[in-house]
Write the structure tokens for this entry.
Amino acid sequence: MDYVIQPTALTGGTVCVPGDKSISHRALILGAIANGQTEIEGFLAGEDCRSTLAALRSLGVSIDHVVGGTVRVDGVGMSGLGEPGESLDFGNSGTGMRLFAGLLCGQRFDSTLSGDKSLSERPMQRIIEPLSLMGASIDSDNGRPPLLVHGGHKLVGIHYSLPVASAQVKSAILLAGLYAKGETVVLEPAVTRDHTERMLKLMGATIESGDGRIRIQATGQLNATIIKVPGDLSSAAFLILAALIAKDAEIVIRSVGVNPTRTGAIEILREMGGDISVESPQLMSQEPVADIRVRSSALHGIAVDSSLVSLAIDEFPVLFVAAAVAKGTTRFSGIGELRVKESDRITVMAEGLRQMGISIDESEDGAEIHGGELTGGTVDSYGDHRVAMAFAVAATVAKAALRVRNTDAVDTSFPGFTAVLGSLGANLSTQRADRK
Ligand code: S3P
């Protein structure tokens, strides 16, 4: 499907966004190997987490998905997973594949992990290397999926310095560490999202973190619990952007996760002049949660501090659009990881924004965006959910209608996106793809 968006003045309102994708994946996985029934409230029923759910069912876990967002997982215990009868298909989800590689390399049986076209091109050597050092045996297609994870290998703890800041790699190692003899220590070059660590603590694992170092011991038992999943800040980011660039709007997004390892984009947008306040903070299942209020603001260009990159890793499509409408030039550096996300997000965003009349200088791991006025026309999201939503929001302030191609993947992270944006006043319709 394509989106067709007419320029409209956003009015604003109070909305919610679907549950956090990273936390939903982890709640399913840890619930599956816990003892007892884990109840997950506010689960994100997007395609990526559905792939994780299906994979766990193939491994013999009974999971009940109640309409309205609650999921009940009957944990099978640390050694209760069973051999899957088929290849586990993770669709578009890098998180799913990488976390499962960590989970499965310490099991007694073999598993095959595959994915869609985009996932099949994403780098897996970054997990194969540390897991192999732990004693795992994983075959791949030259470091790309599909992965054949051989079971029956005894794992040992390692001390490992991550070459790239990646919560997915860190989490894969920690999951393997649950099954490894001795202590596993992971050192991070920059802080990345710590949902795995928080949830493991909540469920009783022996894990400590501090000073960029996470230590975990083999765990005999995780305890089932109730996990309340907050709204996904990475989905809220599109609505934050929509309100900021609107002429005169104010929105409130309720119960959004504001874990400090995720809030880099809020810091960056505030530095660009964005009026964003975080209200009524509370802790839910060990995760900070708050309401976010946003008012339209005149944004200006900045040099984005590269130490914030890992804290805003999924928000660069949003930040690129903010830079495109800001006054002056915005400089991004140290963002090379964006080239290996669901698409090459530097190239794909630059292509679309250029088609919308914006001038961008691109380098291997950076971009310089010169703010201007957005025109309408046609852009392609190349099947990347976050790129599609970023362009849809950009279009609300364009001079003419915009068609965004290949938007089906939005369902991987933000089912109901068009309805939520529409409720804030945007004029967006979905149309069958027309041929170029
Ligand atoms: C995620 C980690 C990030 C992020 C992805 C979700 C996770 O990837 O881009 O959308 O849930 O651990 P990296 O840690 O590989 O950067």
